[in-house]
Amino acid sequence: MYVRVSSRKNKTGQVVRYLQLAHNEWDAQAGMSRTKVLYSFGREDELDRPAVQRLVTALSRLLDPAAAAALTAPADMTLTDARPMGGAYVLDGLWRRLGVDTAIRDALAGKRADATRVERILFALTANRALKPSSKLAATDWIAHDVHIDGLSDVVDEACYRAMDVLLGVEDQVARQVFHQVADLLNLEVDLLFFDTTSTYFETGEADEPAARDEHGRVQAAAEPSDAVRDSGFRSHGKSKDHRDDLPQVVVGMAVTRSGIPVRVWSWPGNYSDSALIRQVKDDMRDWSLARIVWVADRGFSSAANRRYLQRAGGHYIIGEKLRSGSAEAAAALSRQGRYAQISANLQVKEVKLDDAGDRFVICFNPDEAERDQHVREHLIARLTDKITGSDSLSATKRAELRGQISTSPGLNRFLRVTPGGLLRIDAAAVKAEARLDGKYLLRCSDPKLTPEDIALGYKQLLEVERGWRDMKSVLDLRPVYHRLEDRIRAHVLLCWLALLLVRTAETMTGRTWPAIRADLDRLHTITFTGPAGTFRQTTELTKPQRDLLAALKLGPPKKIIELTTTP
Q: Which one, out of 95, 271, 385, 546, has a CA that is 20 to 30 A from the CA of 308?
């Protein structure tokens, strides 16, 4: 296909040139090639060049960005580089809008570090978690060759590690300043703060050496270990929430608003239990000038000491209560009669008043969950029945062995009864007691002003933290952690938190999931041309989905020409 030029003289004798878009077709019958005109542009001196430009641009959108740029580049220029930039551009815009860049530079004011470069490196590492999670060494290659980061063309891994060390040193100041910026931008409601923990394991069989620690789990360099639990190594064995008790782990905690925005993250040694961690969280956020706060937490934080601590300075809590704990309060709450109020299709609530309890108790009932619990229990009883059928004919030793096997399965052992004569039977009383708990969970609340509906719905929003853990582990790849030193592991968790903060902000403002947003943005490229006159880098044209995303995020379009360098 080519532009055909034909000439003819007009009535005045002037030579006029005409332009046509044509291509040659082979005529098999004639045995020769014939010219076929596809489009006539008219006289060359009357050519509508802007219209031609629009046509070329429209056709270029049908091609891969790199191929389109190569075809439309000047004849003496060579396409030397093409890389995605849309995701990094949007994350950088949100990073600046949320004031993360300013918070980092302010925290580094007066220090020896180059604040601007450190901030750019930390943004690049954060963007890497959201766009293409990898090790810090692989991230340096990604920055240099696979993405466009404004203000940072390349970086070495040693600089990444130094920037992470700096981030850990200014963690408190950055977290506080960023939170207030996010609260203003998104008009966050922070009357409820949800807190939960998870664990992340390491593919190594050896735990870290014990180290003396303070009450917040931080290393005390000048002291010697004296407490076997508190003064453990950072990577240590504990109760794994990923079902990998065989591997050392660390515990990670996160506070989230009711809209799912993560406001802060913490890290502790892997053998720390949940019960006391929320006290440190409350202390760390005490100076954030927050209004009245109701803490929402799961059953692992329901100790009396935690409840007293959360009520200091006028605070309140909504905490799940263990139904099978055997506590007198739980038993009394479940025994009270009363009608349930329907909140939604799958949630009913009933408040019960206990005479000697200062807290309020709300029983929640989920009919769908009740059916599931019943089905699971019937399946377990069927398995247990199958195991003990015919056991009466076994010797006492064999029955004892069978009982020992069943005891290793808590689900089955719960419904097993042993008669005085040593026979194995289904415990009908245990089955009946368990059936009373189908689809139910118990909440304890200290706030006298919240309605039972608010208490139930507030606790249900604790799922936002669970969603945060899922995204941090699957989308942002919290694990595997390519670090061995404690401070680097803590800094890695902070980078994952910053990435989740940007991702959640984008999702909140657009109403779309991050994978869908990222897929559209990855189609926006930077194209680099090099020629005798120099080098220039430009962006591809925005598509409608990309323009809609930028509008929803209140971000302007990227510059058309990003870089222009002339050859001396």
A: 271
